Amino acid sequence: MTLTLTQFRFEIDQDQIAHLIWDMPDKSMNVFTETTLDELDQVVDYIAKTDAIQGCVISSGKVDSFSGGADIDLINKLIDQAQSKSKNEITSADTESLITASSYMSRVYRKLETCGKVFAIALHGTCVGGAFELALACHYRVMADDSKSKVGLPEIKIGIFPGAGGTQRVPRLAPTADALLMMLKGDLINAETALKYRLVDIVAGKSELVEKAKAFILNGGSAIKAWDRENFKLPSGPVYSKGGMMVWPMASAICRKETYDNYPAARALLQTVYEGLQVPFDLGLKIENRFFANILRTTEAKSMVRSLFVSTQALNKGARRPATVSKSVIKAIGIVGTGFMGAGIASVSTMAGLKVIMIDQTIDLAKKGRDQALATIAKRMKAPPEDIAQSDTAKNLIVSDSYTALFECDLVIEAVFEDPALKVKTLSAVEAHLNPNAILASNTSTLPISGLADALTKKNNFLGIHFFSPVDKMRLVELIKGSETNERALAVGFDYSRLISKTPIIVNDARGFFANRCVLNYLLEGHLMLAEGYPPAFIENVARMAGMPVGPLALSDEVALDLIHRIITATRSALGEQSINPTQAEIISTLVERHQRFGRKNGKGFYDYTPGSPKRLWNGLKEFNKTSQSIEPLNIEEAKFRLLATQALEAARTMDEKIILDAREADIGAILGFGFAPYTGGPLSMIDGMGVTIFNQKCEALQKRYGDRFSLPQNLIDMGKTTSHFYN
């Protein structure tokens, strides 16, 4: 038998130890494709049949990582096969075919695990998903002890769950509660935690990994896994035991509380582990295979995989970046306005290795912003603030009160107070001190970029870069294209966004852009429900049930009520009385002007915020009930749909108005920008998944009951006539 390999290098040393080096050509990171699996299957057969080979060490030929898991095309092919027919057309043969296809990786790993030869694996950098499931199937795992090395099973975050043995191996190695938490959260863990959970056997320096793995084989390491021995015992004891009964009821309750059963994969994962731990290992794998195949057929899996995996990667790789502009070289940026947002932008830029010049009216204000940026960096790096203050990172943060310091900057971002007159004045003054090639940007949340550009000489070199708060945590950036913004400015904005690890979407200019138009509709609906007589706690809880991370009243407090008040005032001033909702305007103005309730920032908003205590809904909210009565009976399903539909309609309107040109950007922008129910895949995916006809009918019913804010844009009307989709 001869090996024909393109994804791996295969060597046999003088000790008759095979070394399989995974090093995919033309890729910076190894990923699993069908070809990769075929070749791995071939290698396992070869090693099993070659008596002279004692065992095999698997490692990565990539400098920075082991593997990012399954390739996009591999997952997409399974999703397509799973959803090629409607539910009433699926036959038992279709189901068995899907199970066979989706369990291929699992079968290869089980063959490796039981072939009679020892497999040891050396892990460095990132090792996630199917790649970590490969590691779990090996008989010995050595992991690098550096901070960049992480392992985990993040599949739950894209609407599926580990389907190559992970649900069966992890809880047979780690305590059940820890295993469930790791898989249900999908977070990556470091070497120390992996060792604690027994998910790796030893931690060593990167240069020692292969030798340590080889030593296990040479020293007679076993080729039989613990669960294949008769005396195997689960780390936390049987499911039906005192220990098990302390885990499973709580796990089920927490899963329900956190997901509201919106995520089929989470419930399936829980059930797969629960059933799998009660039977022999091979039967547990069959249980996993069947649940995994079933999840591939869900709308949630299709939508989440598409948006949170396929589309996100495509956008991050430049699917919407101007193709004719070469990659930008950005070494220094300027930030004018060093308040909360300016300091946040400075922190992420400095951590990305950029030189940052912070400008404010006075040196003291600039220094205050610098201190805030350094505090954020210290928190993110989990380092003592005093160490960060003395580090090279801190040396890259320079403060000044003079615009002349901006001349060396490749990009300058204005981040002053959200006031059009102040922004125009600042931008005009800054432009006079830039070098000829510099790009100028404004961090504004709602103000049209083309209007701000009126005072500038080089309007084509100006764009909006809308960051979300808090900057260090929020992954989305909106790049706002003004009427005269050129492609080079957009390309620089894109390259800068990726440099600081943000996902950029390109939005044509309009008041509120994309994200804030949608999220402000969500806040509006919550405010109007309050006025209609819905109990505040019901509004907040039903929003969570619908899949939103926080309710509209709590989110209003986070945004800041005085900011919402300014947005309403500015919109009324620019577009007239008909552009704002009078009921909402009255609620917000009453809170801000009469009660001085500005939101979380001053401890008073829709909620009361007492240090050291949980926030509580303000007792005075009954004042805003315009009907002086409660809504009875409470229609939970209508309320859930109402809160999501108002956002989805606005997303569709932005597509109809050509503010967003790509459905992927609308969905990713909504999920990353304001947490739109991730299980839907985003607002446009929600419409597609529900079916435009059903969505339109539901919105028409809401329009009759609640008004024209639920009216359909023309694109949805047209789509309803042809039953077409945003994603073809």
* Rg (CA only): 28 Å
Separate helix tally = 30
Strand content: 5-15%
Tell me, what's the shape?
globular
Number of strands: 19
Biggest sheet statistics? 8 strands, mixed
**Low-confidence spans: pLDDT under 50, at least 5 residues?**
none
CATH class of the largest domain: Alpha Beta
For the record, what is the CATH homologous superfamily label of the largest domain? Answer: 2-enoyl-CoA Hydratase, Chain A, domain 1
Q: pLDDT average, as an integer?
A: 94
Structure description:
- The model has no long low-confidence stretch (mean pLDDT 94).
- The protein is an alpha/beta fold and 728 residues long.
- The protein is built from 30 helices and 19 strands.
- The longest helix is centred in the last third of the chain and has 21 residues, at 636-656.
- The chain folds into 3 domains: 8-254 and 265-273, 2-enoyl-CoA Hydratase, Chain A, domain 1, CATH 3.90.226.10; 332-508, NAD(P)-binding Rossmann-like Domain (Rossmann fold, 3-Layer(aba) Sandwich); 516-658 and 662-722, N-(1-d-carboxylethyl)-l-norvaline Dehydrogenase, domain 2 (Orthogonal Bundle).
- Helix 2 (72-82) runs antiparallel to helix 13.
- The strands form 4 sheets. The protein has an 8-stranded mixed β-sheet, sandwiched between helices. The protein has a 6-stranded mixed β-sheet with strand order 1-2-3-5-7-9, with helices on both faces. It has a 3-stranded parallel β-sheet with strand order 4-6-8.
Question: Outline of this structure?
Answer:
The chain has 728 residues and is an alpha/beta fold. Helix content is 49%, strand content 12%.
